[in-house]
Specification:
3-stranded antiparallel beta sheet; mainly beta; 57% strand; 13-stranded antiparallel beta sheet
Length: 208
């Protein structure tokens, strides 16, 4: 294959670092653009460390047998908001379908005493499975029938997913995990939130 690295200006933005390669045998490619600038999306909200990738393969480097797939545009950036650092990820398929997700770094504790983790706000135009245990979050291509605990099915719309660990001093359920899923939608009529309790110490029932 062939690879390249250069610095150029794109759409008026200077010092854009382009890195890419093309595999002749597999006919796959991957191009990454890393801009040495911040992106103020709205007043008071500024994305830093913005990076875009255009590729028709998942692997970062050329590999034998890594067949070409659909072209995807992915992006990631950093965001500081409400005193919390977020990683923003986005993906656009060759068919124009897309998702964008905001993921806080580390534990998120908006309620004193209740630590929320694996928190994710997602806006998506197609149903997909995301692995919320990775940083940044990644889409699970060809997900298994039985999803892993960190893999969450995301319906179309605007969604909230999270998990929380109950304090140990709560009788019977202390230390258990609560998996939270909410479909925010675009109107109050579409709002729905549900929680699944995964017991840390399931009761032993004779015969079951």
């Amino acid at each position: 294959g062939i690879s390249f690295s250069t610095t150029t200006a794109i759409a008026g933005v200077a010092d854009v670092h382009l890195v890419g390669d093309f595999c002749f045998s597999e006919k796959t490619y991957r191009i990454t653009a890393d801009a040495a600038t911040d992106w103020p999306v709205i007043d008071g909200v500024e994305l830093t460390g913005v990076r875009f990738t255009v590729a028709n393969r998942a692997a970062a480097n050329c590999a034998a047998g890594d067949a070409a797939g659909p072209t995807r545009v992915t992006a990631r950036a950093d965001l500081d908001l409400f005193g919390t650092h977020f990683i923003v990820s986005a993906n656009i398929t060759g068919d124009g379908e897309s998702w964008i997700a905001a993921q806080p770094m580390g534990a998120f504790q908006p309620i004193p005493g209740l630590t929320i983790h694996d928190t994710l706000i997602v806006a998506n135009t197609y149903e997909l499975v995301l692995d919320v245990g990775t940083l940044p979050v990644t889409e699970v291509i060809d997900p298994p029938a039985q999803l892993a605990s960190s893999q969450r099915l995301i319906p179309v719309g605007v969604n909230l997913v999270a998990a929380a660990t109950l304090p140990d001093n709560i009788p019977a359920v202390g230390g258990s995990e609560v998996q939270i899923a909410g479909h925010i939608g675009t109107s109050l009529a579409e709002l729905s939130i549900e929680a699944k309790l995964v017991l840390a110490h399931p009761p032993e029932i004779a015969g079951l």
